[in-house]
Here is the input.
Amino acid sequence: MQAAVIILATWNRNAFPKPKNYKEFLINLKEALNSCKPLFDKLKDKEFRTSNFDELANEIKEIYSKLSKIEGVKYTGASKIFHLFCPNLIVMWDDCIRRMYGKNTTWQDFLDFQKLMQKIFRHIDWDEKEKTLPKAIDEYNYVECHFESEKRFCE
Here is the structure.
């Protein structure tokens, strides 16, 4: 729970709740994380390159839908929390990255984004211990979107 709050406060500042809403936010986040725990446990050992995302669609839908409806988490935060609990499976996104790939904020778009990232990047041999392949893809997308293509996608 603490790690989720820290990642949201750091990397999801625009959606993070103001102090008067903070208690309600914590309650909602805790409830969502508790209800998603069995799903996270089911997915925690899945690998980005080898997983069939269509077979994982129900779990992805349930987790993403629960997290993204929380005020203070929303769509970017949902992807970051999802990655926190499934770092070898889930590639994160933000508004700019979503727009760069022509995606909206629905769970289906999130699933389609994972499948697209897999299609583009699954061929990469990755054995770095300090960073997962999904995190490396996120960093590539971030640089590509926020620095290289800023004028096209982030205005």
